[in-house]
Amino acid sequence: MKTRDKIIVASIELFNEQGERNITTNHIAAHLGISPGNLYYHFRNKEDIINAIYSEYADDLINQFKGLSDAINPLDSILLYMDIVFQLISKFRFFYSNLPVLLSKNPALKKRYSEIQKEIIQKVSSMLQSLNEAEILSIKDDELEDLTCLLRITTTFWLSYLQTQIEDNPKIDDASLYEGLLKIFALLSPYVTDGARQDFENARDQYKALKQDALTQQIAI
Amino acid sequence: MKTRDKIIVASIELFNEQGERNITTNHIAAHLGISPGNLYYHFRNKEDIINAIYSEYADDLINQFKGLSDAINPLDSILLYMDIVFQLISKFRFFYSNLPVLLSKNPALKKRYSEIQKEIIQKVSSMLQSLNEAEILSIKDDELEDLTCLLRITTTFWLSYLQTQIEDNPKIDDASLYEGLLKIFALLSPYVTDGARQDFENARDQYKALKQDALTQQIAI
DNA sequence: GTCTATACTACGATAGAC
DNA sequence: GTCTATCGTAGTATAGAC
To answer: DNA binding happens at which residues (chains A, B) (predicted)?
Structure first.
């Protein structure tokens, strides 16, 4: 791997584990066994590294969504979508743990973030409309915007919420992500039509089982 | 006002405006026209100031909730409760903009935060049950926990969400808080019984009007 | 591309006079 | 209680050799 890429990978790892605020450029260099000077050859400063990480995040996002374009049923579609979102948030969780602060001191990043957010909101909104048309959900026009917003808040801050709840510092694992997805089920549940109720609850049970599996696996290790 | 209190007030103000991370003890002292030495006479360090601010927050919370104990109807009760919560979050928003980071590097604070959280969750949960018993909402037993959790996430991170959405750096004002409260309405809406629907929508319209007032007032200024 | 060495700065914190 | 003066440290960043 090129040094530049190594720096990005190590930074993500260290930021996630110990918090972006607690990790300096020197830490990153030391962790990789390279000199600070070398790090500064590849990046102008720490903000530059964060911006590069965000580029990687954005690329990931686009690539993952491409693989999702196959026409499957709308319920699976939104679930897979949410799954991807949770996984990406987990992979870059230092970023989301710190979202308002990180964005406020980096206007360029905030602009990029806003643009991607707009697309995601658009996508979620259109997925909900598809579910409406397929008569899986029954959402009134004036409810659509609020529901989209609540879905965004829940996905964006789910891990942050978990981190504030758990007593000792938590390990973010697959079970945490499935638990987040189950909150999405809870949000959508009141809007599910009678006709789709069975499928919906089956899907929910599947994710409950996945969460349980992840939990027991975790204990086994 | 005593110097100690002045330091707390100024710190809250500066932290909210410019972010806790960007404000040093020297900034606080300079802002008050006192010496750094004087500040350090009153507080051992910056973390000590933050802990003192949190004590003020906790006191505020308890006092506000005391004034709420009068038996009013359960719907007004939860709305007033949420109103208080939003206002407190707004008053200490630097804290919530930074929640996971601030808590992870201050275990004592995290412990205090967790304890208060437990009480709030308990309180919200019992309020929802009252609404159930009064047949204003119809929440099944297995839905209660998820709904409580979604309410917590939405209130806790509403302002953080707003800050990430608005293009240029946002002014958090009354309209923002009412908008947050309307998200609470959106969360509860699917669970409202037919019998209580009219009251619920009337209350919602009231808050919509309040938000509009706040918006126009803001433009007038 | 990578290293060593170093300069600079900001911040946290304390000592000691008043 | 408050000030002035100052020290130590940690983090950022660059220069210049290899």
So the answer is: 24-43
Classify domain A51-220 at the CATH superfamily level. Tetracycline Repressor, domain 2 (1.10.357.10)
Rounded to the nearest angstrom, the minimum Cα separation between B2 and chain A is 31
- Residues B97, A101 contacting (CB under 8 angstroms): yes
Under 8 Å between Cβ of A85 and A183: no
Name the residue facing A104 among B19, B156, B157 (closest C-beta): B19
**Residue A134 pLDDT > 90:** yes
- Please answer yes or no on whether B146 and A117 come within 8 Å at the CB atom: no
- Topology at the third CATH level for domain B50-220: Tetracycline Repressor; domain 2 (1.10.357)
For residue A42, say whether its CB is under 7 Å from any atom of strand C: yes
Q: Is the pLDDT of residue A207 over 90?
A: yes
Query: Can you give the distance from the CA of residue B8 to the C1' of nucleotide C6 in angstroms?
Result: 40
**B99 closest CB neighbour out of A149, A156, A160:** A160
What average pLDDT does range A186-207 have in this prediction? 98
Q: Which residues are registered as beta bridge partners of A137?
A: A192
Instruction: Provide the pLDDT confidence category of residue A65 given band limits of 50, 70 and 90.
Output: confident
pLDDT averaged over every residue in chain A: 95
Low-confidence ranges of chain B (pLDDT < 50): none
Distance B29 CA to D10 C1' (A): 22
Bases of chain C below 7 A from a protein C-beta are 1-6, 10-16
Among A144, A151, A138, A142, residue whose Cα is nearest residue A196: A138
Q: Which CATH architecture has domain A1-43?
A: Orthogonal Bundle (1.10)
Between CA B126 and CA B190 the distance in angstroms is 19
